[in-house]
Amino acid sequence: MAPHEFVPADFDPPTALATRQFRLEPLGPQHNEADLRAWTSSIAHIRATPGYPDGSWPPEQGTSPEENLADLTRHAADFVARRGFTFTVLDPDDDVIGCVYLYPCASPEHDVEVQSWVRQDRAELDEPLAQAVADWLVVAWPWENPDRHGR
Questions:
Q1: Distance, CA of 17 to CA of 23 (rounded, Å)
Q2: Mind listing the pLDDT tens digit for each residue in 51-85?
Q3: In which domain of life is the source organism classified (predicted)?
Q4: Entry pTM
Q5: Less Cβ around it within 10 Å: N or C end of the chain?
Q6: Which long-range contacts (CB under 8 A, 24 or more apart) does 74-78 make?
Q7: For residue range 112-132, what is the model confidence (pLDDT) as tens digits?
Q8: Helix/strand/coil (H/E/C) assignment for every residue in the chain
Q9: What is the CATH number of domain 19-147?
């Protein structure tokens, strides 16, 4: 892998992960309404989730649907450009219950920063999601030293 690449040029990034409790698919504009509803219902819970140490996200005042759409559009563009990979977490009824973010890490000790959250009413899935993603990183992704923020 070239030093400036987040993933090797010949790597085909996975676009799905499924368990009995949830499934992941790339986050995009089509998730705007459900995504906004999910995170705004759980701001304090998300801020207390490992991986959000600075307390700046999500914003306590929420955001407009247009601002959220711009954020989802940016994440989708990052996925296409292979700069970062954001997945929405869906329950078996296809309702958005969380997100997973795989982005370059600023620390030289790690090659990817891994963050995830679930809605407060699905808090029991915080650890199963984090563990499923950790296992997925080992078998399906090219990184060797993820920063999972203590998970």
A1: 6
A2: 876 677 888 888 999 999 999 999 999 999 999 99
A3: Bacteria
A4: 0.94
A5: N
A6: 75/27, 75/28, 76/26, 76/27, 76/28, 76/29, 78/103
A7: 999 999 999 999 999 999 999
A8: CCCCCCCCCCCCCCCCEECCCCEEEECCHHHHHHHHHHHHCCHHHHHCCCCCCCCCCCCCCCCCHHHHHHHHHHHHHHHHHCCCEEEEEECCCCCEEEEEEEECCCCCCCCEEEEEEECHHHHHHHHHHHHHHHHHHHHHCCCCCEECCCC
A9: 3.40.630.30
Would you say 73 and 102 are in contact if contact means Cβ atoms under 8 Å apart? no
